[in-house]
């Protein structure tokens, strides 16, 4: 099983020029495995996400998905996108609440897990699959890649607009313990809902311990499907 591909920065962080010129006192809150950084601008109630050139991660793809999704579901509003030889910058408005792995919610895992399950169900119901221009299918994710043999994918249970990175930190929770929105939608697209469900449930163990999957599936309103869970977790690990 792979571990999360991003975490809070540990130690000093060099602030990219694109961020430094826009924020007086940025606070680094997240670092991904391709060298990307996310900064919080408390004074402006916004986040600045920066990826270095050549990282292979596309902030323009996230910009496009946020711009589409915000018409149907609470996601960050895009305030600015910029690109130069050093990298890409995406500036978004802060959602109300805090991420599901902030200290409060790590201390209240039952509340957090229920918010994650209920929030993912709402995202799947709010975003209209018939209108979605983005693809996160098995074929799209594996095209052009040399991957381990995964076998044929199971038949699609329900085609929805998937979050694409449904790990626990990407659900935002309000002070009342209910979900308020979702962040990090660079991979959002059409897929079987189990592509999200398998990964969201797997991520709970990284943050809250190994006993919370049943609570998650109850909150979402579905019984676990071991075959689909196994396949989509293997696909996540492989890609």
From TrEMBL:
Keyword entries, A-Z: Antibiotic resistance, ATP-binding, Kinase, Nucleotide-binding, Transferase
Listed InterPro entries: Aminoglycoside_PTrfase, Kan/Strep_kinase, Kinase-like_dom_sf
Q: Does the keyword Lyase apply?
A: no
Would you say which domain of life the source belongs to? Bacteria
Note whether Nucleotide-binding occurs among the keywords: yes
User: Ranges for the Aminoglycoside phosphotransferase domain?
Assistant: 44-231
The entry's family comment says:
Belongs to the aminoglycoside phosphotransferase family.
Q: What is this protein called?
A: Aminoglycoside 3'-phosphotransferase
The organism of origin for this protein = Protaetiibacter mangrovi
